[in-house]
Amino acid sequence: MSFKAILLEKNITGFSNKVTSLTQEALLKQEGDTLIEIHYSSINYKDALAITNKGPVVRMWPMVPGIDGVGTIINSTSDQYKEGDLVILNGWGCGETHWGCLSQYAHLKSDWLIPLPKNLTPKQAMSMGTAGYTAALCVQSIIKHGIKPEQGNILVTGATGGVGSIAILLLAKLGYSITAATSKIDNIDYLQQLGANHVIDSRTLSEVGKPLQKEQWAAAIDVLGSHALANVCAQIQYGGIVAACGLAQGLDFPSTVAPFILRGITLAGIDSVMAPYPKRVAAWDLLATHLDEQQLNRITHTISLNECQKVAEEMIAGQIRGRYIVDLGI
Question: Does residue 293 register a pLDDT over 90?
Answer without folding.
Answer: no
